[in-house]
From TrEMBL:
It comes from Alicyclobacillus cellulosilyticus. It holds the Pfam family ABC_tran. Residues 30-313 form the ABC transmembrane type-1 domain. Residues 350-597 form the ABC transporter domain. NCBIfam families: CydD. Keywords: ATP-binding, Cell membrane, Membrane, Nucleotide-binding, Transmembrane, Transmembrane helix, Transport. This is ATP-binding cassette subfamily C protein CydD. GO terms for molecular function: ABC-type transporter activity; ATP binding; ATP hydrolysis activity. It is a multi-pass membrane protein.
Length: 606
C-alpha cells in the first residue's frame, strides 16, 4: 500500500522512516486493514440477505417464523461485523502506540546524536512540545487516518465488484462519481493542509515563546519588559485562534460538500433503480440490495476525508519530527567504532593542526587556522575576550563540532578515527552552563561515572562510592554548602526542595568533573561565578588536582591562568599569543591588556 498519493512528500519520507524502523507497527497496520476489510465485506452479505428477507416477507408473503434460520444468520452477520470492526480499531490503536513509542525513542536518540551544538541553536519549548503533546497528535493520523486510506480503496472496490456483477448501470454511476468525490477531497485537503501547517507553526512558536518568558521572567521584570510580553503572547494567541478557526471552517465546509455530493450520487442510483423496478426490468431483492450498498460505497471515501482533516495535526508534527531525524549532526559520529589508545594516567598529546571550524548556520568561522599542541601532563590556560573561540576549541576537541579544515589529533591519531565514546570517557568536562538532573546531590555528582580512568582506580575500587563523592565535593569546595542543605547529599535537586546559587551550581558541576577523574581535563570557566575568596581557594586546590593530567582550562579570571604551564591567548577565532604569564606580560599584547583590566577588577573588588 502506498500512502504517498494523499500526503505527498511527508508520507513519502515517512514511508522511508517508519516503514524501516517500526516493523512491529506494520504488522498491526496490516491486521487493522485486514479486519476492517472483512468487516466491510460482510456489508455486502448483510445487504443481500436483508433484501432477500424483505422480499420473502413483504412480497412473497412467507411467514417470518419460517425464515428463522435466515434471521439468525442476519443477526450473526451484524455481531460478526461489530467484532471485526472492534478488532480492527484495537489493532490500529496498538499500531499508533507502537509508532509513537518508536518515534519518541528515535527522536531522543537523534537529539543525543545531534549533540549540544545543534540543540543550543533550538528553542527548548518547541522540543518539549514536540516530544510530549505534539506526539499525541499522531494518534489520529496513525490509528484512524492511515488504516482508513487502505479501507477507502478496498471496501468501495469490493462493493463495486458486487454492483458490476448485479447491475451495470449502477456500477457505471459509482465508477463515474467516485473519482469526482476523491478529486473534491484532494482540492479541499490541500487548503486544509496549509491552514493546519500555519496553526501548528503558531502553536510551536507560542509554546517556545511562553517557555522563554517563564524562564526569563526575572530579567524581564528587572528591565520592566514583562507587560510588553503579555501583549506579545496575546498577539500570538489571537493569531492561533484565527488559524484554528480557519482550519475548522475548512473542515466543516468539506464535510458539508461531501455529504451533499454523496446524497446526489445515491439519489442518482435510486432513481435509475426505481425506474427499472417500476418497468419490471429488475427484481426487487437485487434493486434493494444495491440501494442499501450505495451509501456503503461512498462511506469509506467520506470517512477518509474526515480523518484527513483530523489527522492534519499529525502530519504537521511528522514534518517537524522528520526535520529532526534527517538533520545532519554538526559534530563527529560517536558510533562506538574506531581506535582506542592505550590508557594513560597523564593524558594524551593533543594537537590542533591548522584547524578552522564554523557553527551550522553561522556566516563566519568561530576558529580560523588554529595551531596548538598540548603535551601529556601539561596544563594550558585558554584566555581571550568574549567570543574569541575559547569554548569552540573545547566543542571541537569533544567532537561536538566538525572541523572545516585542518585536523585535531590525539597522540598522533586524527580525532575522527578514534572511538569517540572512548575519548569522551577519558575527559573530565566542565561546561560553561552545567545542567543537573532529577535526583539527589550525590546522584548528580555520581552521574559522571568515574573509576574508568586508571588514575586512582585501585583506590576507588576499595573506597565506598559515597566517600568518593564527598572527596570530589571537597576538592571543588562544595562539601560545606552541601552539608548545609536540608538533607545534605540526599537533597533532591529538581523540584522545590532546593535552589542553588550560580556559584554553588558551578562548584557542584566541578565536583562532578573531579569525580570523573579523567586523565584529560576540559574546564570552561571553572571559577567564573564564585566570590574572590572562594576563587583563590579553588585556584589552590585545582592547581594540585590538575597536576599530572592533560588540561585545557578556559579562564576569564586570570588568577587560574597565571598558574598554568602555558597560556594560549585567543582573539577573533585565532591564536594571538602563547607563552607563560611572564613572557606574555613582557610582550605588551592582548594578554597584557586583559591582565591589566583583570587586575583593575580585582583591586576594585571589596
Ligand atoms: N551554537 C552556535 N551557533 C552559532 N554560532 C556560535 C555558536 N556558539 C558560539 N558561536 C559563535 O562562535 C564564536 C565563538 O564563540 P565561543 O563560545 O567559542 O566564544 P568564547 O571565547 O568561549 O566566548 P565567552 O568567553 O563569551 O564564552 C562567537 O562569535 C559566537 O557567537
Amino acid at each position: 500500500m502506498s500512502i504517498r498519493h494523499v500526503d505527498g512528500k511527508v508520507c513519502e519520507r515517512m514511508n522511508r522512516v517508519w516503514f524501516r524502523y517500526a516493523r512491529n507497527a506494520q504488522r498491526w497496520l496490516w491486521l487493522a486493514v485486514g479486519l476492517g476489510w472483512l468487516a466491510g465485506g460482510l456489508v455486502i452479505a448483510q445487504a443481500a440477505l436483508l433484501a432477500r428477507l424483505v422480499q420473502e416477507v413483504f412480497l412473497a408473503g412467507t411467514p417470518p417464523s419460517r425464515l428463522l434460520p435466515w434471521w439468525m444468520a442476519l443477526i450473526g452477520l451484524f455481531a460478526l461485523r461489530g467484532l471485526l470492526a472492534a478488532g480492527s480499531q484495537g489493532a490500529a490503536i496498538r499500531m499508533a502506540a507502537e509508532v509513537k513509542a518508536g518515534l519518541r525513542g528515535m527522536v531522543l536518540r537523534k537529539l543525543v546524536e545531534l549533540g549540544p551544538v545543534y540543540l543550543r541553536g533550538q528553542r527548548a519549548g518547541e522540543w518539549l512540545h514536540l516530544v510530549t503533546d505534539g506526539m499525541e497528535h499522531l494518534d489520529t493520523y496513525f490509528a484512524r487516518y492511515l488504516p482508513q486510506v487502505a479501507l477507502s480503496a478496498l471496501i468501495p472496490a469490493s462493493v463495486f465488484a458486487y454492483a458490476a456483477a448485479a447491475d451495470r448501470i449502477t456500477a457505471l454511476v459509482l465508477a463515474l462519481t467516485a473519482p469526482l468525490l476523491v478529486l473534491l477531497m484532494i482540492l479541499i485537503g490541500k487548503s486544509a493542509q496549509k491552514a493546519t501547517d500555519r496553526q501548528w507553526r503558531t502553536l510551536a512558536w507560542l509554546s517556545g515563546h511562553f517557555l522563554d518568558v517563564v524562564r526569563g521572567l526575572w530579567t524581564l521584570k528587572v528591565f520592566r519588559r514583562s507587560r510588553a510580553q503579555i501583549g506579545i503572547i496575546r498577539q500570538i494567541t489571537d493569531e492561533y485562534r484565527k488559524t484554528t478557526m480557519g482550519t475548522l471552517r475548512i473542515a466543516f465546509l468539506s464535510a458539508l460538500v461531501m455529504e451533499l455530493f454523496t446524497m446526489i450520487s445515491t439519489a442518482l442510483v435510486a432513481v435509475s433503480l426505481g425506474l427499472r423496478l417500476v418497468s419490471g426490468k429488475m427484481d426487487f431483492a437485487r434493486a434493494f440490495a444495491l440501494l442499501l450498498l450505495t451509501p456503503e460505497f461512498y462511506l469509506p471515501i467520506r470517512t477518509v476525508g474526515a480523518q484527513f482533516h483530523a489527522g492534519r495535526d499529525g502530519v504537521s508534527v511528522l514534518e517537524r519530527i522528520l526535520a529532526v531525524l534527517e538533520a545532519k549532526p554538526p559534530g563527529l559520529a560517536a558510533a562506538g567504532q574506531g581506535r582506542r589508545l592505550p590508557l594513560s594516567h597523564r593524558g594524551y598529546r593533543i594537537e590542533f593542526d591548522h584547524v578552522t571550524a564554523r557553527y551550522p548556520g553561522a556566516n563566519r568561522d568561530a576558529l580560523t587556522d588554529v595551531c596548538l599542541t598540548v603535551e601529556p601532563g601539561e596544563t594550558v590556560a585558554i584566555v581571550g575576550p568574549s567570543g574569541a573561540g575559547k569554548s569552540t576549541l573545547l566543542d571541537v576537541l569533544l567532537g561536538y563540532l566538525r572541523v572545516r579544515q585542518g585536523e585535531v589529533r590525539i597522540n598522533g591519531v586524527p580525532l575522527q578515527e578514534l572511538d569517540l565514546s572512548w575519548w569522551r570517557e577519558q575527559v573530565s568536562y566542565l561546561p560553561q552552563h552545567p545542567q543537573f538532573f532529577h535526583g539527589t546531590v550525590a546522584d548528580n555528582v555520581r552521574l559522571a561515572g568515574g573509576g574508568e580512568s586508571q588514575a586512582e582506580s585501585e583506590a576507588a575500587e576499595s573506597e565506598p562510592a559515597d566517600e568518593r563523592v564527598r572527596r570530589a565535593c571537597a576538592v571543588a569546595l562544595a562539601d560545606r554548602f552541601i552539608q548545609d542543605l536540608p538533607r545534605g547529599y540526599d537533597t533532591y535537586l529538581a523540584g522545590e526542595e532546593v535552589r542553588l546559587s550560580g556559584g554553588q551550581r558551578q562548584r557542584l558541576a566541578l565536583a562532578r568533573a573531579v569525580f570523573k577523574d579523567g586523565p584529560v581535563v576540559l574546564f570552561d570557566e571553572p571559577v567564573a561565578d564564585v566570590d574572590i575568596e572562594t576563587e583563590r581557594a579553588l585556584e589552590q586546590v585545582l592547581q594540585g588536582w590538575l597536576r599530572g593530567r592533560t588540561a585545557l582550562v578556559v579562564a576569564h579570571r586570570l588568577g587560574l591562568a597565571m598558574q598554568a604551564d602555558r597560556i594560549v591567548v585567543m582573539d577573533g577565532g585565532r591564536v594571538a599569543e602563547t607563552g607563560t604569564h611572564a613572557e606574555l606580560m613582557a610582550r605588551h599584547g592582548v594578554y597584557h591588556r586583559l591582565f591589566t583590566t583583570y587586575l583593575g577588577e580585582e583591586m576594585a573588588a571589596p
